[in-house]
Structure formats: structure tokens, C-alpha cells
Write a structure and sequence with these properties.
Strand 8 (146-149) and strand 9 (156-159) form a beta hairpin. By secondary structure, this protein is an alpha/beta fold. The strands form four sheets. The chain has an eight-stranded parallel β-barrel, surrounded by six helices. The chain is built from 16 helices and 16 strands.
Length: 404
């Protein structure tokens, strides 16, 4: 695509070495630049849970990612478009991603009720609705698209590549993803092959619809293809090679990984993708994932873990995860981390945070989320600096030794 360079562009500033695919770069979008590697804060329903947009900016986040499936069901893309798009609707001035809805299809279909993944929805996921979804055989996937039942009220909906693109264009994010089929890690190879062929066909349809819609817009929206293939090296490499031949602006790497194979599996893919285009690892954000992903050539990540574990009273520290519900923190007047520069650590003791959690105060989720998001965002910033000054391997060794 021959879009103006100031609308979407990726430039590599530094490559680590011949023995690593890690690099530092810059992604330019209509709403600003992202210094990569970067952690993308998840704002599923056009909100980062318990944190205001201003607080998200202040803790150092460069971009947010919203969820197409959830916003389509509630409040609906038409309302968001009338409001001026997601940026205006949620008061976020910087770069923004939206996913395609493909992972939610997986959650409602193959993974429904099996503990592989869960149907998102919090308070609205009532048993009666779940029963209606289950009775309706959850999500039905064909080559045309997906029929699914809302986790909110059990109503029937259809989603396909064209509709996913139409919804995401109406939402107005800077970077959007092609519609794909995310398979269970337990699915046999025969089905992985079927799903992969379907994902590639859907990628071509997504790209065609996207190009048609982009031609009518003032702001250019970038489209990433999504690599699938399960845990099979040849399928992963085939997917990367197939998508690399299409005119995508960048690439997402989807599907499920085990902690032991993430670096290897991601490396299979990034070795086959165009070096000049950005790569996003979907749904990964633990400390070890960040180091392994960046070393394998990943530029951006997203993950709900920082805010999710915060709402359960757990925080990241330089020496690993800590549960502030532990009784020993009830009397500690020290901050979570004396070296941390986040708002929470600069102003509140662990005793106060422990008190908020035990009292069921909503503020606990806000303060712990601020810390966790700052922690992950700052860690990726430190990794970026280590790439630029050639200290990555020393930094990785020391950091992981302390953390684990």
C-alpha cells in the first residue's frame, strides 16, 4: 500500500546482533509514535479497568488495545462512530489497537467450559446465559464466518472477515487485526490444518475489505495479518510465509503457547516474516514472555494480566509477584518497591494497600493496577534501552535472576 509515510510507518533504529532478532524501532501512527519494544495496555471495553486515561498516560503507556467483540455487543460500533471513534469516545489521545474478535470466537467455541480459556464478561456472565450459549452449541465456525451467541444476553450474532473489518474501521483504531480462527492447543493436527487454511482465506478477505474501506477515510488504519498454526513448526512457518506474501502493514502472532516453547515457536515465525514490518505478540505479557519475545524479534505485546492480578491483590516487584493480601503486609509502612517511581509507590504504604484490599475498597484495584502497568511498561522501556546500548544480555541475566 502506498500510504503517506506520516500515517503509518515502522523504522528500525537498532538491531541487537547476528545471534538475536531483537530490535528497537519506532511505529508511527496518525495519533502519535510508539517507541518499540512496547507493552500495549489492554482496555477491553474502551476502558483500562479501574484506571482513567490520564492515569494510563501518566504511568508511561504509549498505546491501548480495545476488544472488537465486546464493543460490537455493547455499546455497538455505530454509537462509537457517531461519538467520533474510540479515541474520542474513551478520551485516549495516543495510538490505539483493536483485535479482530477471533480469540473470543475461540473462547465461545472450542474452549467454552473447558478451562482452556474463559468467556469474558464478569458480572454479566450469569449461569442462565451460559446455559443458553451451551445449548446453542456455543460458536459455529464455517468457511464463511462464525455464528455465536452473546455472553451478555444469549442473542445470536454472525461475524466474518468483512464484518470484522467494518466494525474495526467504525471504531477507528490506528492498528487493527485480520479476522482469524484461534485454535485450541489440544486440537489435533488435522483440524489445525483446516483452521489454518481458513485463517489464510479470511486474511485475504480481511485485506480486501480493509483496502476498500481505507480508500474512503482521511486517517490511514494499518492492518496486521495474524499468524496461526498451533504448536506445529511447519504450520507456523507456512502461515508466516503465506501472510508475508500479502500486503499487510504488520503481523500479529496468535494462538496458544506453553511457557517452554514460546521463544522457539515465536522464533519460527519471526524468521519468516518481513524484517521491515512490525510484529505483535497477542496476549503475552509475563516477565519471561517479554524477554523471550523481544529476543525473538517481537516489537509490541498486549496482555490483561497486570490489571487482572491487581484486582486480586497481587503486584509485580523486581523480586517476583507478591500477594498483598498476606498478613505480613498489614503492618508494613514501606511501599511495594522503594525503587519504583509510580504514583502508588511514591504515596502509599503496603499496609494501606493491604487495608484497602481487606476492606473491599475499589481504590485498591486502581492503585495496584497503576503500579502493575507502570512496572511492565517500565520494564519494556528498560529492555529497549538495553538494546540501544548493547547491554541486553547482561540486563536479561541479572533481571531474571532477581525476579525468579
Amino acid at each position: 500500500m502506498n500510504q503517506p509515510s506520516n500515517h503509518f510507518q515502522f523504522s528500525i533504529q537498532k538491531k541487537l546482533s547476528k545471534n538475536s532478532m531483537a530490535r528497537a524501532g519506532v511505529i508511527s501512527t496518525p495519533h502519535g509514535d510508539m517507541q518499540t519494544p512496547a507493552f500495549i495496555t489492554v482496555g477491553t471495553a474502551a476502558t483500562v479497568k479501574a484506571v482513567t486515561p490520564e492515569q494510563v498516560q501518566q504511568l508511561g503507556a504509549q498505546a491501548v488495545l480495545a476488544n472488537t467483540y465486546h464493543l460490537y455487543l455493547r455499546p455497538g460500533e455505530d454509537i462509537i462512530q457517531k461519538a467520533g471513534g474510540l479515541h474520542t469516545f474513551m478520551h485516549w489521545p495516543g495510538p490505539m489497537f483493536t483485535d479482530s474478535g477471533g480469540f473470543q470466537v475461540f473462547s465461545l467455541g472450542e474452549a467454552f467450559g473447558k478451562g482452556i480459556s474463559k468467556v469474558a464478561g464478569g458480572e454479566d456472565s450469569k449461569s442462565s446465559v451460559n446455559e443458553r450459549i451451551s445449548q446453542a452449541k456455543k460458536a459455529k465456525i464455517t468457511d464463511e464466518g462464525v455464528t455465536f451467541w452473546s455472553h451478555i444476553d444469549g442473542s445470536k450474532h454472525e461475524l466474518n472477515p468483512e464484518k470484522s473489518m467494518q466494525i474495526q474501521h467504525a471504531l477507528g483504531a490506528d492498528i487493527i487485526f485480520a479476522f482469524d480462527e484461534c485454535t485450541s492447543p489440544h486440537a489435533p493436527r488435522a483440524y489445525q490444518e483446516i483452521a489454518l487454511n481458513r485463517t489464510h482465506a479470511w486474511a485475504a478477505r480481511s485485506l480486501h475489505e480493509h483496502q476498500k474501506l481505507n480508500a474512503t477515510q482521511a486517517n490511514y488504519q494499518a492492518l496486521y495479518g495474524v499468524v496461526q498454526g498451533g504448536q506445529f513448526q511447519d504450520l507456523r512457518e507456512l502461515s508466516a510465509t503465506t501472510l508475508a506474501e500479502m500486503d499487510f502493514d504488520g503481523f500479529g502472532i496468535g494462538g496458544s503457547f506453553t511457557k517452554d516453547d514460546i521463544a522457539t515457536a515465536v522464533g519460527w515465525v519471526t524468521a519468516k516474516l518481513p524484517e521491515a514490518k512490525p510484529r505483535h505478540l497477542l496476549g503475552m505479557g509475563e516477565v519471561i514472555d517479554l524477554f523471550k519475545g523481544i529476543e525473538a524479534g517481537i516489537d509490541t505485546f498486549d496482555c490483561v494480566s497486570p490489571t487482572r492480578i491487581a484486582r486480586n491483590g497481587t503486584v509485580y516487584t523486581a523480586k517476583g509477584r507478591v500477594s498483598l493480601t498476606n498478613a505480613k503486609y498489614a503492618t508494613s509502612l514501606k511501599p511495594i518497591d522503594s525503587q519504583c517511581s509510580c504514583y502508588t509507590c511514591q504515596n502509599f504504604s503496603t499496609a494501606y494497600l493491604n487495608h484497602l484490599i481487606k476492606a473491599g475498597e475499589m481504590l485498591s484495584a486502581t492503585l495496584l493496577s497503576i503500579h502493575n502497568l507502570h512496572f511492565v511498561t517500565d520494564l519494556v522501556d528498560q529492555i529497549r534501552k538495553s538494546l540501544l546500548d548493547d547491554s541486553f544480555f547482561d540486563f536479561k541475566k541479572q533481571y531474571l535472576a532477581n525476579y525468579y
